[in-house]
């Protein structure tokens, strides 16, 4: 779906393939790449057709795919990242050099030497620590994000994280109030910016590291381009250092120094007509609305035997299965039992909180073993200025695992995932979602295209702060298409 709009997504995958890096594009390939990548197409739209084609042909494919080669924000070299060049992150030219590196911290931090006080803010603003257990403060954060958080390039859609989502995302096991950082206008007390972190553990190749997952960096539209983002990033870094956490993971659609991996967004229409009406999906040339609707039709019942919603009693089994499954990836999250419970089990009965996560397990009726599980979460988007629809209900594929992954039989794994994921689509449709999003991480390249997920124009870059490791594959090849040979890299889903 070249039509898709997405989260934090713009540029694309850093290819590990040295040959690809040296390759130049033929005119035909350039055209195909543009067709597959509307974000690039937009960026080149200002140039006349021949010039754009010529510019494209001259580019290295790998650069093109990381978005480093083209227009505007992606065109910067290291020197123009005035803030990021001062930070302990790898430079763009270090990626290849790190290829044989086991990986490790870039800078050793002495907590004793970390400032005990924040840097001053510009006149009229002050630091705040949000207390999200208080409904009013959760509401303030919700207001800031709902009107000022991530939009697509054409300002048609903006993320609309629900309050229950924020509760779930920011009060995960081990959460710290100090890592819910805000900036208030001194006079009006209004919350005008925020950044947050939660603690967790990652496995990066063989190393287990404690990290902060950074998310929800947001600045009020009226305060943009005033260099406030670096101040926020430095402040949360200081607060993490004080707690003895010296590494972080974060994702963004923009290219910063330097992605450790890049995945592409894919979108599976569940209510094609609505997606078409709101401008999320286009009518492909030569097709009709009726044909698109019937193409995206799903069965009404699931086909995985013994599939049922996950319950508290499944936590240990799912934990064990997911840990084994995730260890197959270079970059993965080392979940605790508590985290599994928090992230995957929807507890009914919290009457005032709407459901955020849906998890299902398949249980062998004889052995009672959990053989498979999958989950998805709800992240709506506001449809900005549309006469008929104001909200897009989007399901995002979250974690999943299957025993079939350990058989060593790729064909069997593919078949199993096709069935499980088709069931996920059916269940999401039943839960009234309009579209189902997934990235090219985990084993997703095995099923995305066959299950009629369309390629998005969004790319999600993964970053590690103060940690260097060789580039990790993002499930796409040098044409930015899902590729089974590029799997095994990213095993972390960021919200
Ligand atoms: C992202 C956002 C906070 C940046 O603020 P801004 O006012 O545009 O930029 P500022 O002048 O404060 O700071 C610019 C610096 O921040 C960096 N920056 C911009 N977006 C960034 C991001 N998503 N993550 C980390 N750094 C980012 C820039 O690269 C620049 O640093 P550089 O000089 O080293 O290149 C703001 O645009 C915003 O709130 N956007 C909507 C929400 C959003 O996109 N959040 C990020 C989700 S990943």
TrEMBL record:
Its EC number is 2.3.1.97. Residues 1-26 are annotated as: Disordered. GO terms for molecular function: glycylpeptide N-tetradecanoyltransferase activity. Gene3D superfamilies: 3.40.630.30. Residues 277-493 form the Glycylpeptide N-tetradecanoyltransferase C-terminal domain. It is found in: Cytoplasm. Residues 109-263 form the Glycylpeptide N-tetradecanoyltransferase N-terminal domain. InterPro entries: Acyl_CoA_acyltransferase, NMT, NMT_C, NMT_CS, NMT_N. The keyword Cytoplasm applies. The keyword Acyltransferase applies. Keywords: Acyltransferase, Cytoplasm, Transferase. GO terms for cellular component: cytoplasm. It catalyses: N-terminal glycyl-[protein] + tetradecanoyl-CoA = N-tetradecanoylglycyl-[protein] + CoA + H(+). Its main location: cytoplasm. Adds a myristoyl group to the N-terminal glycine residue of certain cellular proteins. Monomer. Belongs to the NMT family. This is Glycylpeptide N-tetradecanoyltransferase. It comes from Aspergillus aculeatus (strain ATCC 16872 / CBS 172.66 / WB 5094).
């Amino acid at each position: 779906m070249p039509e898709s709009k997405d989260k934090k997504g713009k540029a694309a995958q850093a290819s590990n393939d040295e040959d690809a890096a040296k390759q130049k594009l033929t005119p035909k390939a350039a055209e195909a790449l543009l067709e597959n990548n509307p974000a690039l197409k937009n960026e080149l739209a200002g140039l006349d057709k021949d010039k754009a084609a010529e510019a494209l042909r001259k580019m290295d494919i790998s650069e093109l795919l990381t978005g480093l080669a083209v227009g505007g924000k992606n065109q910067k070299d290291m020197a123009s990242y005035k803030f990021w060049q001062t930070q302990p992150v790898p430079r763009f030219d270090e990626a290849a050099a790190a290829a044989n590196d086991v990986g490790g911290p870039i800078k050793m931090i002495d907590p004793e030497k970390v400032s005990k006080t924040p840097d001053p803010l510009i006149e009229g603003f002050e630091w705040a620590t949000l207390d999200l257990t208080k409904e009013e403060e959760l509401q303030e954060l919700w207001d800031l994000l709902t009107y000022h958080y991530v939009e697509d390039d054409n300002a048609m859609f903006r993320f609309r994280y629900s309050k229950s989502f924020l509760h779930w995302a920011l009060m995960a096991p081990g959460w710290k109030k100090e890592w819910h950082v805000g900036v208030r206008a001194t006079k009006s007390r209004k919350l005008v910016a925020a950044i947050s972190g939660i603690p967790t553990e990652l496995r990066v190749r063989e190393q287990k590291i404690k990290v902060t997952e950074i998310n929800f960096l947001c600045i009020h539209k009226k305060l943009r381009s005033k260099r406030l983002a670096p101040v926020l990033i430095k402040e949360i870094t200081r607060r993490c250092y004080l707690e003895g956490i010296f590494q972080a993971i974060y994702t963004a659609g923009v290219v910063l120094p330097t992605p450790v991996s890049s995945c592409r967004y894919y979108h599976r229409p569940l209510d094609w007509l609505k997606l078409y009406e709101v401008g999320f999906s286009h009518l492909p040339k030569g097709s009709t609305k009726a044909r698109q609707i019937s193409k995206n039709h799903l069965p009404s019942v699931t086909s995985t035997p013994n599939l049922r919603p996950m319950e508290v009693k499944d936590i240990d089994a799912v934990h064990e299965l997911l840990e084994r499954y995730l260890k197959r990836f270079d970059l993965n999250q080392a979940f605790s039992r508590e985290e599994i419970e928090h992230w995957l089990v929807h507890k009914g009965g919290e009457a005032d909180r709407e459901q955020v996560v849906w998890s299902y397990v398949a249980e062998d009726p004889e052995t009672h073993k959990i053989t498979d599980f999958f989950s998805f979460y709800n992240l709506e988007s506001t449809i900005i200025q549309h006469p008929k629809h104001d909200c897009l209900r989007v399901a995002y594929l979250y974690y999943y695992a299957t025993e079939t992954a350990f058989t060593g039989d790729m064909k069997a794994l593919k078949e199993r995932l096709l069935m499980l994921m088709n069931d996920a689509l059916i269940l999401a449709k039943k839960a009234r979602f309009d579209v189902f999003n997934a990235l090219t991480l985990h084993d997703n390249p095995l099923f995305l295209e066959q299950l009629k997920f369309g390629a998005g124009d969004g790319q999600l870059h993964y970053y590690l702060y103060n940690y260097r490791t060789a580039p990790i594959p993002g499930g796409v090849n040098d044409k930015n298409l899902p590729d089974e040979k590029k799997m095994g890299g990213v095993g972390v889903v960021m919200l």
